[in-house]
Amino acid sequence: MAQESKWEEKIKRSRGRRGSKPIPGCSEGERPSLCWEGGQSFSQGSELVVHKHLHDGEKPHRCLECGKSFSWNCLLISHQRIHTRERPYECPQCQKRFQTSSTLLKHQQIHTEERPFHCPNCRKGFKHNSHLITHWRIHTGERPYECPQCGKSFSDSSRLTGHQRRHW
């Protein structure tokens, strides 16, 4: 099976699981379409056909611009925004626009003082987990980014990149 994107994995997890809730207004006897791999049942056979794409790896929704294929049409629509440069989600504070609602939500944190990631050593707060990881290296002394030309090491890749410009 081809490697799934994080969105396809998320959809797979969010779709019905074993012991799924019954479909409202539909008795157990009226649910003829059962997925033998996932255990989910459907009131209509067409729903089962669509669901089976999760198990067989089929990706019938193809981008006509670049040829990339997706299991779900909603993923194709989201992908196509790369080509159209459509940004339908707007930040109400600064009017900056985004291709996905999740990117907008992440952006909106810059307008708040929320710092949900805290250093367990000094309690300093960060808006992004990646910044906490870089900060943590101050306490550990870890310097995982090494210059291949002179051997000097750095706690984050951007400092290494800046250093490497000096060798040019």
Automatic annotation (TrEMBL):
Residue stretches of biased makeup (Basic and acidic residues): 1-11
Keyword Cell wall biogenesis/degradation: no
PROSITE patterns reported in the protein's UniProt record: ZINC_FINGER_C2H2_1, ZINC_FINGER_C2H2_2
Gene Ontology BP term (one): regulation of transcription by RNA polymerase II
Subcellular location: Nucleus
InterPro entries the record matches: Ikaros_C2H2-ZF (IPR050589), Znf_C2H2_sf (IPR036236), Znf_C2H2_type (IPR013087)
UniProt keyword annotations, A-Z: DNA-binding, Metal-binding, Nucleus, Repeat, Transcription, Transcription regulation, Zinc, Zinc-finger
Parts forming coiled coils: none
GO CC terms of this entry: nucleus
SUPFAM superfamilies in the cross-refs: beta-beta-alpha zinc fingers
Domain C2H2-type: residue ranges: 33-60, 61-88, 89-116, 117-144, 145-168
Sequence segments annotated as region (Disordered): 1-31
Molecular functions (GO terms): DNA-binding transcription factor activity; RNA polymerase II cis-regulatory region sequence-specific DNA binding; zinc ion binding
Family assignment from sequence similarity: Belongs to the krueppel C2H2-type zinc-finger protein family.
The protein's name: C2H2-type domain-containing protein
